[in-house]
Specification:
The structure is a single chain. Helices cover 39% and strands 13% of the residues. The chain has 375 residues and is an alpha/beta fold. The strands form 3 sheets. It has an 8-stranded mixed sheet, with helices on both faces. Helix 3 (39-52) runs parallel beside helix 9 and helix 4 crosses helix 5. The chain starts with 10 loop residues before the first helix and ends with a helix. Bound molecules: pyridoxal-5'-phosphate. Pyridoxal-5'-phosphate is lined by residues 62-64, 88-89, 91-92, 134, 160, 162-163, 184, 186, 196, 198.
Length: 375
Amino acid sequence: MSLSPIPQTSPHASYQTYKEEIDRAIALFLERGRYILSDETVAFEEEFATYLGAVYGIGVGSGTDALTLALRACGIGAGAEVITVSHTAIATVAAIELADAVPVLVDIDPHTFTIDPAQIEQAITDRTRVIVPVHLYGHPADMDAVMAIAKRHHLCVIEDCAQAHGTEYKGRKVGSFGAAAAFSFYPTKNLGALGDAGMIVCSDPEIAVTARMLRQYGWDANRISQVAGANSRIDELQSAILRVKLRHLDEENAKRRELAKCYTAGLQQTTLRLPVEMTWATHCYHQYVVRVSHRADLQAHLTENAIGTAVHYPVPAHLQPAYRGRLKTAVSLLHTEQAAHEVLSLPLFPALTHTEADYVIEQLALWSATQRQPN
Ligand SMILES: *Cc1c(COP(=O)(O)O)cnc(C)c1O
């Protein structure tokens, strides 16, 4: 069988799928000539918040900004400690520091790759203000447990939903549990723009008003700065494109789930450890992440056979040069460090065909068979 190379992800394929609708939206945008915070943005903010079961959406420049400004809108600032994980996109930790707050990193649950609720309480001090669960790879964090701890200690919860557009916890979409949630629309995310974009989602009118001010110089309705703000507005053009793609999000997530099911069925006999979906979870499969002990070898085999893979993430936040030795961490980040050595993200995007997925499975099975032979 001869196939074209299979990328790990393909935002361009997603554009091709909806090309006509997206091109039409762009043409309309060009005709209208309104470039910043206009009708498309207002509509997209409302549609996305409604999709999630929340009230307010505040479009911003990126997922990182969404998290930073959500923290600030919740009154989190200098010296406040924010408990989160080290096994995440570096943006999670960067955003906390950009809000002048102090990240405190705890370990993950090795099955779901999300914050281990059992590790949170030991990390709480009298300066702790927030817990930031990350719904990593599209699997939700254990929100009942996280919310119960937050309630007991009067902490705020801000969800990092950058990889979880449409993910559900016990039938309810993530992004509606905490005081606020941060979404990224980076091109490869399940809902991806054709450039940078992000959104803060919340249901508290005060947080919404503050977040709206913070994204634009701290301006009030008279364009007078009431707080020290930023310039982090979502592009009107990206809002127009994202409105088109939001209409197809459920359908695209269903395709991801279908492909994940193929992988899980096809890879049962291999030596790979496959991702789990807890009974309380509806995974949106932003990534399909396997665990393997000879990762570099497997990656090389797949590369030779024209299959793209990625490692999310090879170095935990607390071990990256910018942060090493100066971040507050739990005593042990054992599961975090082990995951960093073993995780491998297989090709997964809605336009991936079943024929391609079968070829990936076949190549994984071939490699796996060589692993079983005694050396
Ligand atoms: C992508 C991502 C972010 C940052 O989003 P940007 O839009 O790239 O700033 C934050 N957290 C997680 C978990 C992400 O995957």
